[in-house]
Amino acid sequence: MSNAHVMLGLLSRGQQHGYDLKRAHDEQFPAARPLAYGQVYATLQRLEKQGLVEPVTVERVDGPDRTVYALTDAGRTELADWLDSPEPPSPYVSNPLAVKVTLTILAAGEQEAHTYLRRQRAAHLDRMRDYTRTKTEPSSSLPQVLAADYALAHLDADLRWIDTALQRVGALTKEITS
Amino acid sequence: MSTASGEKAVALSARSLVYSYGAAPAVKGVSLEVARGEILSITGASGSGKSTLLLCLAGVLAPDAGEVRLGDRIISAESESERSRLRRSQVGVVFQFGQLVPELTALENVALPLLLGGARRSAAETAARTWLERFEVGGLADARPPGMSGGQSQRVAIARAMVTEPEVVLADEPTGALDSLSGELVMNQLVRVVREAGTTVVLVTHDARVSAYGDREIHLRDGELDPHPADLLDAGVS
Predict the structure, then answer these.
(1) What is the rounded CA–CA span in Å between residue A24 and residue A34?
(2) Which chain B residue is nearest to residue A126, measuring alpha carbons?
(3) CATH no. for residue B152?
(4) What region holds the Transcription regulator PadR N-terminal domain (chain A) (predicted)?
(5) DSSP strand pairing (B39-43 vs B200-204)
(6) Is B13 inside a domain boundary?
(7) Interchain proximity B212–A112, CB inside 8 Å
């Protein structure tokens, strides 16, 4: 996913200038890193060169000129194609927790790996409590709740792995130290 | 001993609790404290003893050894009829399912604990209606459980547990029979209402996402409390 596609998507609501796009982005995607203005303008210029957006007017309200952009037909087609194609499911093959378990077994032993996993479990649970608080906060917006849900689902997946790994530390120790 | 956080008054505690089913010990010397207004999660695999522990805390089961204290009362030493009266007034219990009386309407189900406690029908029904509305199922007052969805009947069951405004609510897998979105909505509502009311909650669950609604978690393994990893460090066990 690129910022360019995100800009195209936000412009589908109607013509906007860069400042509005930045604000809409940060509001709609609270879990994402806030966009820098420079990034927004650079992206809009690139999209303009590609013929996907076009400047429609220049606004001036108590400050600098603001170019208002709109989607072109080509931009609408590009957006529709992108929205239609599923994101490649991430393989999640890199698991830093597993690496740490193996190295703990090698460097310190089975009991230490067990203790490490239990500490990791507690750290994950603390994090899950934070996200759950965000979720139950009456002032949270639905995008914030959904972002917290996404984080919770991933932490929960890690936690299930930790619980399985806890039951297998002994077997794993035998296998990698034999 | 798992202690309540901070300096708050202890609402519920257990000391060296033991309970066996025949020769098989299910809870082996568990001690814990729950602070007033705290939500404590108890997690553990199936068979770890967490439901048995909850039944002891609720006064449903009398422990073989150890004591359960609710405020200043040692409830584990009280008679079955005293404990049963206590469950109708000061302790609310919520199970996974099968707890509503199918022949009664939602309103009658929620009013029941008050009526059993000797309240007048009109007062009991007014209170029941208020609690149904608090859980956003006021519209179901005249419906009977067989016609309700899982999420709806669980809200009614929680309203019934709260209607006596108990000091402590004990919940065993309260969302275990629900799909994840309904479960989440029920949990959000439960937490919002108990926070407002300042109720102390003990929440038994195998699900980390449900457990995360608690302020603190304790983990049971084979009937015993797992020491918190931080305590392992303190004790130098690693």
Answers:
(1) 10
(2) B212
(3) 3.40.50.300
(4) 7-80
(5) parallel
(6) no
(7) no
A153 to chain B: closest CA residue? B209
Residue B22: inside a domain, yes or no?
A: no
CATH topology classification for A3-84 = Arc Repressor Mutant, subunit A (1.10.10)
In a domain, B221, yes or no: yes
Closest listed residue to residue B175, CA positions, set B161, B155, B194: B155
- E strand spans, chain A: 16-17, 53-60, 65-71
Judge: B229–A121 Cβ closer than 8 Å, yes or no: yes
pLDDT digits (tens, 9 = 90+) for B4-55: 555 679 999 999 999 999 888 899 999 999 999 999 999 988 889 999 999 9
Question: Which of A115, A122, A128 has the CB atom closest to B212's CB atom?
Answer: A128
**ipTM given for this complex:** 0.76
Report strand pairing: B10-21 vs B224-225. Answer: unpaired
The domain in which residue B127 lies consists of 36-57+79-234
Task: Indicate if the alpha-carbon torsion angle B203, B208, B210, B214 is positive or negative.
Answer: positive
Contact B237 A125 (CB under 8 A): no
Name which of B209, B210, B237 to mutate to probe chain A: the one with the most chain A Cβ atoms within 10 A of its Cβ. Answer: B209
